[in-house]
Amino acid sequence: MSAGIEVRYESLDYRPSELWSSGKLSSQMTGIDDVSRNIKEVYGEFLIPVLSDMAFAKSLEIEGALRYAKYSTESASFTSSKLGVNWAINDDFRFRSTYSRAVRAPQLGEMFAGTSIGFSDLTDPCDSDQIDGGPSDGRRKANCQALGITDGWDSNLKGKRGKVVSSGNTELGEETATTMTAGFVFQPSDVDNLRISIDYYDIDLSDLIVSFGASSVLSNCVDLESINNEYCGQIERASNGDVLSVRDTFLNADNSRRRGVDVEADYAIDMAKSFDLAGTFRIAMGVTRQLEKSYTEYDFVEGKPLKSESLGTLGAPKWKADVMATYSVDDISVRWTTKFTQGGPFYADLNPDRYQNQNIRNSVVHNFWVGYDITPEANVYLGVNNVTDETWLDNPFTNWDRLNYSLLGRAYYAGVNYKF
Which Pfam families match (predicted)? Predict the structure, then answer.
């Protein structure tokens, strides 16, 4: 068991350039005047051996942790916790599971950010092209009329960018992550150097700190039951209805969830013992099957959450796999890595008549590396990434996921490592 106390001090003092804060540019930023806070934390951890050397219980351990934090800038206190079990059924099988709750306090910049003025693409719901949208009961048109805007009115935002005023929000609360994992590890005693693990994970994020969005402020103003709401107060309109500015800020609003299964396997072969050859051959594999990658936004007009699922789209593949094979002889090591990422559409609901070539093919990339230990302290190496020179320049959407879809093709590198 262990316990401790931690005290931290954080401060933020931001001074934009004189030109940027002068108002002479199209955008403007004010500074943050040396805001600060104190954080006091108390934590404890424990590991309890429950059973050992029994039938179906080579060992059974329970672990836990608790952390209490008090932030001087928030009225609430935050508690994080973890509870886990590690159960070795026998020498070959081990079950493990963890349930945890973690929090992220809002950062000083999110709470005390100075006023920022810029211009963005905005949609005015009272424009003649938008006024018949919104809820089916026609409240948008009635609310726009209550603002003094008549049918057939063309907004000044049509074809132009609108002024957005952004700032921090001192009323922000913490983000919360609830995580559950469960799986097992298989290390057969009759097969040397083999290890296989399978784990299920479920990560649920709530009260995410997000920017609400100026266009959402505009639409919520006239899509709620009346214009007597907090959103209309964030919009400045001229007497003729033109939008002069929209105020945007951070708030705790959205949720996100990710579920999946991770499979890992590692096997090392003593080549002299198995095949009467020099060296060691090791192969490692990691496979991920995502089951869910969803995002939930709250619809303030309908008064209910709206959940969207991006699984199977670009950036949220159902399947990913890495395979790495390494052969080492004396001071030389050679490694070949293959990375697979399942392709898919850019968005799940893209209009096929509007977007062509939105489906991205699977990514299969091979990398090569060789290293030589000159001394115990010095190593030289060289490698080739993307050996087969694959590129995805034929699809404009791959720019959004360049880690998995190369735009540069084959690349070479070399270097030296030295331990002092």
Answer: TonB_dep_Rec_b-barrel
